[in-house]
Design a protein that fits this description.
The structure is a homodimer. By secondary structure, chain A is mainly alpha-helical. Chain A has helices spanning 6-19, 24-30, 35-43, 50-59; strands spanning 2-3, 62-68. Chain A contains 4 helices and 2 strands. The longest helix of chain A has 14 residues, at 6-19. Chain A binds a DNA duplex through residues 23-25, 33-40, 42-43, 47-49, 51-52.
Chain lengths: 91, 91
DNA sequence: TTTACTTATGCGCAATTGCGTATATAGTGA
DNA sequence: TCACTATATACGCAATTGCGCATAAGTAAA
């Protein structure tokens, strides 16, 4: 499952948790988090810490992968890509 | 590339950035972050925010995937797994 | 060595984290 | 309805974020 933003990740995590029939409390206890923290993660994950993410991944027995995007060149020399507006004010 | 913890993720990101010959400043500008923030992410990523992670992924043209771990059962009923000590105090 | 670029680090700042704890609000089943 | 579980939300708290900004180190080339 590809995740492109915090919200998508949160939704996936919630779905996985439910699919396994686990409550937020149980998941939280498993990796020493509070139920309230899990709840906030599932609703507004943007500012949550990486730490917390990996704890949840562990509790839900999920694994994460990173790789170059499909059409991404390697060894950009003088790439400019002066985009703007996509990240200037998001989430 | 599988990432199991924040540190591994940070290292991968740094390597990717270098492989592409980009400086922290350039990457930061791309997604409206500060060079100092990128620097901190690459050295101590544990507490960094998801927000920041996805900005970096975008700048480096990387994609993230989540999926059930290799040997993970689905629909645990009465699973106990009373582990402890792995997450009680880490990083 | 000097120049240029890159990375690390520091300050004050407002905002947010996750904790500990508690409660309010669903939701479910008898 | 009642009881129980699950989730959302709140409070004060210390810690940390990322910002703006600046500067100190580190690296490399001339």
């Amino acid at each position: 499952m590809k995740v492109t933003d915090p919200k998508a990740l949160a939704v996936y995590l919630r779905d996985e948790r439910k699919r396994r029939g686990l409550s937020q409390s149980v998941v939280a206890d498993e990796v020493d988090l509070r139920q309230g923290t899990v709840s906030r993660f599932e609703s507004t994950p943007e500012k949550m810490q990486l730490d917390t993410l990996f704890r949840l991944l562990s509790a839900l027995e999920l694994e994460l992968s990173v790789k170059p995007r499909d059409g991404s060149a390697r060894n950009q020399r003088g790439s400019h890509t002066s985009d703007d507006g996509k990240w200037t004010e998001e989430w």
